[in-house]
Structure formats: structure tokens, C-alpha cells
């Protein structure tokens, strides 16, 4: 009986007990995992009575809500809502009033008993009926408030979201134009003037240079806000807030007032210059050093700027205040968090994240936090200022892309979650399940499974908050860009949850309201004129790919994963048009690394493979794959005859690398993304999934300055060939 009740609760909360793994085999999650997942969702599974009581409570809460918290409908669908009422009210006349986002008001009067009744229930001896009500209203796209009333008494409110049928596609791409662009980890960019980390000025330079040789976009790693007081927590996929920006990407020298005498005194100090020289010279980004000098310089700039503009009735102050007002609680929360974390660090206290803050500071809404904010208003203002400047510089880079005639310009990357110690969780703990983390079951990229250390949103709480957190995320990350890549897009359908303390392989899938989330994505995509790319790698259920395609989301096709059952590689001419293709990703080795198995050797050195048999199998598979690739490239005449056809004697040469890239450019994908690392023939990866301290993830720099990259004949020749191949593929 207990197991039956447990299963009922499992199904109610959208926990999937069976799935198909990355190798196409059926898999089942353990019974113990079911109970643990329910525990982190807030359920007590210790006894049959408790499980039964919680099921009743959940069912009752639905029946006691006359309207659902939110409903998403598409513009080409009839608007149908659900109304739940006690039987004593079903014969009364009711009014649905919709306050549209544009100020328009629409009303519909109905009597529940005249509508279609779908089901009924008894709650505390009261009989409730559920009705389906069709609203004959023509609502515009947008976010609208819906109220239910009777006898002029409003007793329920809901949000109704009207979304387009599919996401936005730029007209040239819709008309068949095929384009190429470059993907880059912004922090890894070297330049003559940056401070040991790529910045928004470097980005503008890269845009101008790349556009000059035919590129139509620059793809970025997530540029989300990280941790000023904990700079070594540098993974762009484990941010503090996904709505705001990483201040380390600010070019301090480009901010007004940088030339002030007081600022120059800070910058020209001997210790500052020594640290600056070190930060520029290192092979890997030294985040501690970079953060130290950037914060020092930006604080000096802020002090001057604040006195000159932000304490007076200036246009700058008006613009700053407007930015802060628009940012609302989310921006305030981040600024207070950054100021508080820096304060605790200065006092020598453990401060990696809110879980180790003093008790009175562990929640943004605590009175002690409000007191701290008031007492440290200047520091909070400084962190607000950083976000304002970062937004301006990002927008300037985006404008440069428009000026250069890029079809898309910037495409940004939305991480799948935030880290446990993030400001985002600190300010909305009710939304997140902090005793779990998202990751992936065992797959090709991570044979042991992956735990990303990112607490998941509770799908029910997200629904109860009328999807506002996800709306804010989509809108913020489509700003100053022409496209958005959604990391691990399967998260819209389901996420692999791992209970704290368990191995990654012991997790289970929890489902999300995919159709609603795709509707919101489509709406924000049109509002921001942003094409959407979904990273659909790993363990991908077939239903998500067809759903994404129907909703205008571009698939993500990686050459090395596009294999037939016989081991051969599909020609890029067979890829879906509605996709972005690429050779490698930030989670994979570079072309040279792949071809020479440097990733496997590195994985062995750091203990990534549990047995030598697994490693030998991977070597054998790699050898066979490389031969299949050579066969395919020669078969399509994509590489010259002088490039060997036997994998045993053919290394990764410049000709082979160029041939592979041009081979991809001739494919049918609307978008082709290539990595600067491969243009520079680099061999070390950006990131090794499943590692933490074993490898310097998210730190490796490019080997050339951005100013010099496009002065190389081999690179300009490759770019010209890519542009020509894309034109031919568009014909």
C-alpha cells in the first residue's frame, strides 16, 4: 500500500521512473531515489499516513483555487480556462475580466452550470465542480491579468499569457540565407590593452574583425554575474545570477572618469602595475588578480563618477536611476549580496555563499539584511553601478554588430541553473530545492554521470509564481543580442535531479511544464527579435526534439555526434535546416585534441575513467571514428588528395582542419558556429565535464591577441572559403 501511495505522489509531482538512456537502452530509477526526490520536494515519506495526508493536501489546494495561477495559450488557439467552484456557486452569474498588458480591458460573463463540467470532488464535505470555460476574447500577445468575480466581488486572480505559435527567425534566415559565425569564451580573449581577461571592448573588436571576413554572429559563453568576493568560483555555468552580468567583463579604461587624476593614481601605483603585468602574462586567467585590480580601479572610477554625476540632477543620474528602478528587487538583491559578501570577506569570515553567512544574513528578506543595506548604501550603490556600466558596454558591442551588418550579431548563452551559494537562490529560496542538484545520467560526455552543483527550481513553485522567474530570465538574456542559446534545453521538459550526497547516476528525472515554457520562450523571442538555439545533446527524449522544431527552436548539431548506426558520419547536407551545426563545443576537446586523443590521455591522468577497459574502448572507438571521418571527407572531396586516407598515418594538419570546417559550411544547417581555438590550432580544452579542481576549467586563454588573429593569411583564406561555401549552400 505504501509503495502504491508513494507512486501516486511520484506521478503527481512529475518524477519519471523509467527513461531511455544515452545509448538507447531502457533504465529505471531506484525506489530509494523516488523517496529521496520526494523528500527534497518537501514531502515526508516516513509513513503511509503521512504520504496519504500530503496527497490529500495537494489535491485540496488545487480545488480550493478557483483559477489556475497562470495559463499559457498560443495566438492561434481558442482561449479555454478552467474554473473550480463549490456547488453553491455554480448557478450564479460570474464575470471573467482580463486586464491586458496594453491597458485594454476585456470581459466575459458566464454561468458555470451552463459550461462543460469535467470532474468533481468533495473537500471537507463540500462538493466542488470543475468547468471548462471558453473565452470568446481576442487577446493580444503578452502578459495579462485575469480576474474572476461574482456580484462585483472579485475572489480569484490569475495570469494569462498569450504567446506566438513559434519563436522568432530573422527574415534573411527565414528566406534561406545560411550564415557562419565564431563562438568564444569571452574571458579567454587576449588583447593589447585588456587586464588579463577578455572584456566588452575586446568583444566589439572581435565583432568588427570577424564581420570584416564574413562572419554573421559571435557566440558567447554565459556572461552571467559571478562572485566579486569569490572570483575563483569562475564557472560561467555556475553563476550567482543569470539575470545580471559579470562585472569582470567591464573595460575599466573605457568608463567615463577613468582619466581622472585620482583614478590614475590608483592605476599607476607600483603594486597595481605589477599585478596587472602578471594578469596579462599568465597562460590561464588569474581571476583573483583580475578581480583585485578591476575592483580597485572601478571603485576609484565610481567615486569620481558618483560625485560628478550621481549625486546631482544630471542626465547620467536619471539614466542610472531608471536602470535601478527597472532592475527592481532582482538587481537590488544582487548588489546587496555582492556588498555583503565583500563585507564578510574583509572581516575574514567564511563567505563562499549564503549557506555559510551568519544566520541573520542567510536570507535577503531578513531585517538584518535591510539594516546592512542601509548602513552600507555606498557599497551597494557601487555594485548597482557596475551592472549599469556592464549593460552599457554590452549594448555598445551589440550595436557594433548591427553597424557591421551582421545578420544575428551577438548570441548569448543561458546557463541551466545557478550555484548553491548564489544571490538568485538567496533571494527566492521558496523556488529552489537546495538539497538537490541538477546534472545528467551517464552518457557519452560523462560516463559516470554528471552533478553540476546547481539546485533546481521546483516546477510547482515556478507555476505558483506565474512563471515570472523564467520570464525574467528569458528577457534579460535576450537583451543586447540577436540570438539566445539555451544550455541543456531539455530542462524545459525535464531535469536530472541528484539528491545531495548521492552519486550522479543515482538521480531521477523531474518533469517541467514544457509547453508553457516554450510558449513564454516564443513570446520573449518575438519581443526581443531573438532567434533561439536549444542545446539538445546528451540523453535526449525524441519528443523534445520534435517539440522544439515545432516551436521554432533551432537544434544544436555537433558533427562528432551525428553518426549512423554503422558508425559512419552523416553528411552535414543532411542536417536539419532549423539547426546550428558545429564541430566542437566548450565541453569537448579541440580538433587537434580530438584527433590526437589528448582528451583521453588527460582524462586518464586525472582519473576520469573508472577502469582501463573503458579507456581502451574509448581509444578503439575514437580510432574507428577518425577513419570514418577521413572516409567521409574524401568521399565528399572536402579535403585534398594529399591529405592521407589512413588514420594510422594522418595527423590533424592545417589542411585537414580547414577541410573539415569548409565541409561543415557546405551543409544544410542555417547556422554554422566555429571555435576560435580551432582557428588557432590549440590543443587544450576549455572545460572537462565532471571535473572540479583536477583541471583549470574556464581559465585557458587564446594563444593570440584578438588584434592579430585576423591578420593571418591562413585564417582570412579559411574565412573566405567558409563565406563562399555558405553562399553556395544558400542557393
What this model shows, in words?
With 731 residues, the chain is of the alpha/beta class. Among the domains are: 76-163, Immunoglobulin-like; 225-390, no CATH class. Strands 22-19-16-13-12-25-24-23 form an 8-stranded parallel sheet. The chain has a 5-stranded antiparallel sheet with strand order 1-21-20-17-18. Strands 4-11-10-6-7 form a 5-stranded mixed sheet. Strand 2 (18-20) and strand 3 form a beta hairpin. Helix 5 (200-212) packs parallel to helix 11 (377-403), helix 6 (261-267) runs antiparallel to helix 8 and helix 9 packs across helix 11 (377-403). The longest helix is centred in the middle third of the chain and has 32 residues, at 315-346. It is globular. It starts with a helix and ends with a helix. The model has no long low-confidence stretch (mean pLDDT 95).
List the defining traits of the structure above:
alpha/beta, Immunoglobulin-like, 5-stranded antiparallel beta sheet, 25 strands, 23 helices, 39% helix, 8-stranded parallel beta sheet, 731 residues
Q: Could you give a quick summary of the protein structure above?
A:
With 731 residues, the protein is an alpha/beta fold. Among the domains are: 76-163, Immunoglobulin-like, CATH 2.60.40; 225-390, no CATH class.
Structural class: alpha/beta
**Radius of gyration using CA atoms only:** 27 Å
Question: What distance separates the N and C termini?
Answer: 64 Å
Read across the widest sheet, the strand sequence of neighbours is 22-19-16-13-12-25-24-23
Structure annotation, total helices: 23
Strand content: 15-25%
Mean pLDDT: 95
* Count of DSSP strands: 25
Amino acid at each position: 500500500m505504501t509503495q502504491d501511495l508513494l507512486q501516486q505522489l511520484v506521478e503527481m509531482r512529475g518524477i519519471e521512473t523509467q527513461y531511455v538512456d544515452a545509448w538507447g537502452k531502457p533504465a529505471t530509477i531506484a525506489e530509494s531515489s523516488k523517496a529521496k526526490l520526494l523528500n527534497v520536494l518537501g514531502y515526508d515519506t516516513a509513513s503511509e499516513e503521512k504520504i496519504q495526508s500530503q496527497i490529500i493536501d495537494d489535491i485540496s489546494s488545487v480545488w480550493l483555487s478557483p483559477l489556475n495561477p497562470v495559463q499559457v495559450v498560443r495566438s492561434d488557439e481558442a482561449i479555454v480556462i478552467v474554473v473550480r467552484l463549490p456547488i453553491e456557486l455554480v448557478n450564479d452569474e460570474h464575470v471573467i475580466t482580463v486586464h491586458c498588458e496594453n491597458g485594454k480591458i476585456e470581459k466575459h460573463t458566464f454561468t458555470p452550470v451552463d459550461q462543460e463540467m469535467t470532474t468533481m470532488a468533495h473537500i471537507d464535505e463540500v462538493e466542488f465542480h470543475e468547468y471548462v470555460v471558453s473565452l470568446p476574447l481576442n487577446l493580444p500577445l503578452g502578459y495579462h491579468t485575469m480576474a474572476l468575480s461574482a456580484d462585483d466581488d472579485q475572489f480569484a486572480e490569475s495570469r494569462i499569457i498569450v504567446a506566438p505559435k513559434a519563436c522568432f527567425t530573422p527574415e534573411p534566415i527565414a528566406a534561406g540565407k545560411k550564415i557562419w559565425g565564431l563562438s568564444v569564451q569571452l574571458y579567454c580573449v587576449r588583447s593589447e590593452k585588456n587586464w588579463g581577461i577578455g572584456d566588452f571592448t575586446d568583444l566589439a573588436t572581435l565583432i568588427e574583425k570577424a564581420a570584416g571576413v564574413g562572419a554573421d554572429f559571435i557566440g558567447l559563453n554565459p556572461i552571467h554575474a559571478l562572485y566579486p568576493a569569490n572570483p575563483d568560483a569562475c564557472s560561467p555555468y555556475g553563476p550567482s545570477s543569470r539575470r545580471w552580468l559579470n562585472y569582470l567583463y567591464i573595460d575599466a579604461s573605457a568608463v567615463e572618469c577613468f582619466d581622472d587624476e585620482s583614478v590614475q593614481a590608483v592605476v599607476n601605483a607600483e603594486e597595481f602595475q605589477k599585478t596587472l603585468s602578471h594578469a596579462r602574462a599568465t597562460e590561464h586567467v588569474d581571476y583573483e588578480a583580475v578581480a583585485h585590480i578591476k575592483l580597485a580601479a572601478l571603485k576609484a572610477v565610481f567615486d569620481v563618477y558618483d560625485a560628478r554625476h550621481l549625486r546631482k540632477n544630471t542626465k547620467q543620474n536619471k539614466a542610472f536611476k531608471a536602470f535601478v528602478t527597472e532592475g527592481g528587487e532582482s538587481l537590488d538583491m544582487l548588489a546587496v549580496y555582492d556588498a555583503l559578501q565583500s563585507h564578510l570577506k574583509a572581516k575574514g569570515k567564511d563567505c563562499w555563499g549564503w549557506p555559510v553567512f551568519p544566520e541573520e544574513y542567510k536570507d535577503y528578506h531578513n531585517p538584518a539584511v535591510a539594516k546592512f543595506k542601509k548602513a552600507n548604501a555606498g557599497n551597494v550603490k557601487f555594485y548597482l553601478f557596475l551592472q549599469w556600466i556592464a549593460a552599457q558596454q554590452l549594448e555598445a558591442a551589440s550595436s557594433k554588430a548591427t553597424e557591421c551588418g551582421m545578420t544575428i550579431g551577438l548570441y548569448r548563452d543561458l546557463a541551466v541553473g545557478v550555484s548553491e551559494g548564489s544571490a538568485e537562490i538567496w533571494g527566492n529560496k521558496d523556488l529552489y530545492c537546495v538539497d538537490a542538484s541538477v546534472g545528467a545520467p551517464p552518457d557519452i560526455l560523462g560516463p559516470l554521470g554528471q552533478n553540476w552543483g546547481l539546485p533546481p527550481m521546483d516546477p510547482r513553485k515556478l507555476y505558483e509564481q506565474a512563471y515570472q522567474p523564467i520570464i525574467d530570465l528569458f528577457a534579460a538574456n535576450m537583451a543586447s543580442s540577436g540570438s539566445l542559446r539555451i544550455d541543456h534545453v531539455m530542462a524545459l521538459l525535464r531535469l536530472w535531479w541528484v539528491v545531495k550526497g548521492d552519486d550522479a547516476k543515482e538521480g531521477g528525472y523531474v518533469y517541467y511544464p514544457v509547453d508553457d515554457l516554450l510558449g513564454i520562450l516564443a513570446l520573449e523571442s518575438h519581443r526581443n527579435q531573438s532567434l533561439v538555439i536549444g542545446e539538445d545533446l546528451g540523453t535526449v527524449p525524441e519528443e523534445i526534439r520534435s517539440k522544439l522544431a515545432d516551436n521554432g527552436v533551432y537544434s544544436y548539431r555537433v558533427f562528432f555526434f551525428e553518426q549512423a548506426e554503422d558508425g559512419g558520419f552523416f553528411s552535414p547536407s543532411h542536417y536539419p535546416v532549423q539547426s546550428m551545426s558545429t564541430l566542437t563545443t566548450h565541453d569537448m576537446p579541440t580538433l587537434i585534441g580530438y584527433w590526437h586523443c589528448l582528451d583521453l590521455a588527460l582524462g586518464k591522468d586525472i582519473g576520469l575513467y573508472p577502469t582501463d577497459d573503458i579507456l581502451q574502448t574509448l581509444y578503439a572507438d575514437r580510432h574507428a571514428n577518425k577513419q570514418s571521418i577521413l572516409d567521409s571527407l574524401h568521399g565528399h572531396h572536402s579535403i585534398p588528395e594529399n591529405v592521407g586516407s589512413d588514420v594510422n598515418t594522418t595527423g590533424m594538419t592545417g589542411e585537414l582542419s580547414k577541410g573539415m570546417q569548409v565541409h561543415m559550411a557546405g551543409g544544410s544547417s542555417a547556422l554554422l558556429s566555429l571555435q576560435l581555438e580551432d582557428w588557432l590550432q590549440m590543443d587544450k580544452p576549455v572545460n572537462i565535464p565532471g571535473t572540479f579542481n583536477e583541471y583549470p576549467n574556464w581559465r585557458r586563454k587564446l594563444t593570440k591577441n584578438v588584434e592579430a588573429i585576423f591578420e593571418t593569411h591562413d585564417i582570412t583564406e579559411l574565412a573566405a572559403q567558409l563565406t563562399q561555401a555558405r553562399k553556395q549552400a544558400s542557393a
